[in-house]
Design a protein that fits this description.
By secondary structure, this protein is mostly helical. The protein has 4 helices and no strands.
Length: 104
Amino acid sequence: MAWIVLVLSGLLETAWAIALDRSAGFTRPLPSAIFAVTLVLSMGGLAYALREIPVGTGYAVWVGIGATGTALVGMFALGESTSLPRILCLLLVVAGVVGLKIYH
């Protein structure tokens, strides 16, 4: 259960990062509210998962999922660069997350 919560929390990290960008420095109420809610849920899920998963592994997986998800949303929904080096670097992050799960 801890791993499922950790993955969901990583996805919520993506949500709060995108909402933070869309909040325009907290000047837009709806994205600002989405940011606050998803941030609290993401951190709460991380805290729950860390009761069973070592902090180094849990935090790295959480950040990896959030960073990769945010970069993918940026590339496919927000028009950011989809260059080969960028995609290869994201694949390295994913490989690291998978490796941490396998060798946990």
